[in-house]
Automatic annotation (TrEMBL):
InterPro entries: NAD(P)-bd_dom_sf, SDR, SDR_fam. This is Putative oxidoreductase, short-chain dehydrogenase reductase family protein. Belongs to the short-chain dehydrogenases/reductases (SDR) family. It holds the Pfam family adh_short_C2. It comes from the Bacteria. It comes from Carnobacterium divergens DSM 20623. NCBIfam families: EF_P_mod_YmfI (NF047420).
Length: 241
């Protein structure tokens, strides 16, 4: 049995990742924070469809460092970790409060790194040992009005490069996926005109769907992907590349 921890499984991309992995034979720890309904629905659906696999629901506010130790206690075998948790806010850097900076840093980097410090021995013990960050194309090219978000997404890419070198000899691979514009809750505030204008900029002529991302996560988790590490796959329909 192989176990993956999907951080942000309650979100749209995380849910697509969980669904693809469940149908690929993975047992899952499904993490979420506020959207408990999404986790409950997924849990019921996967338990019915894949009765021989195990599924667990876990809650953690990633801005609350005190919760990390208890969260870790609920994990036993871990063969792969996917970080699909995140949020953005549209504002000029001059408008971002120190509290908001701290929260965004905690969700995108600090808490993932605290988790990995403790999960590393489990991943090293695994015959797979996979870590994937869902970063963003903005981490590669940057975006005005999302400077903090772009900075942290870029930091995730830098982390992947550095940490992959540190743990390669343990048999752990560390990669990132940098999505372009994916149709999820995160973009639900865009007006119809904004979406039309955005789509015109995307060479393949459409927004991405969550399964455009989950497909690649599934590939990176396969045994045959063991020679790929420290990389970022940009999945953006050619946008911003
Ligand atoms: N959508 C895009 O166009 C796009 C493009 C590039 C990169 N990405 C990245 O893809 C990842 C998934 O985004 P998505 O589009 O699927 O967005 P989403 O549907 O809004 O999902 C966001 C996920 O992050 C979790 N999260 C947010 N704040 C949290 C906190 N304080 N503690 C714990 N979990 C927290 C949410 O949990 P709850 O809902 O349960 O609170 C949810 O599971 C993010 O890292 C995002 O930056 C998205």
């Amino acid at each position: 049995m192989k176990f993956a921890l999907v951080m942000g499984a309650s979100g749209d991309i995380g849910k697509a990742i969980a669904a693809d992995l469940a149908s690929d034979g993975w047992s899952l720890y499904l993490h979420g924070f506020k959207n408990q309904l999404s986790l409950d629905e997924q849990l019921e659906s996967y338990q019915n469809q894949f009765p021989k696999q195990d599924f667990f629901k876990l809650t953690l506010d990633m801005t609350d460092e005190k919760g990390v130790a208890t969260f870790l206690e609920a994990l036993f075998q871990v063969d792969a970790v996917i970080f699909s948790s995140g949020f953005t806010s549209y504002q000029l850097l001059t408008e971002v409060s120190a509290i908001e900076m701290e929260k965004m840093w905690q969700v995108h980097l600090k808490t993932p790194l605290l988790l990995l410090q403790k999960l590393q021995p489990k991943l090293a013990k695994s015959t797979l040992g996979r870590i994937i960050f869902i970063s963003s194309v903005y981490g590669e090219v940057g975006s005005a009005m999302e400077v903090l978000y772009s900075t942290l997404k870029g930091a995730q890419l830098a982390f992947v490069k550095a940490y992959s070198k540190e743990v390669a000899s343990l048999g752990i691979t560390v990669n990132a996926i940098a999505p372009g514009a994916i149709q999820t809750k995160m973009n639900s505030e865009f007006s119809e005109t904004e979406v039309t204008e955005l789509v015109q900029e995307i060479p393949v002529g459409r927004l991405g769907q969550p399964n455009d991302i989950s497909f690649w996560v599934k590939q990176l988790l396969k045994e045959e992907s063991s020679y790929m590490t420290g990389q970022a796959l940009t999945i953006s329909g050619g946008w911003l590349k």
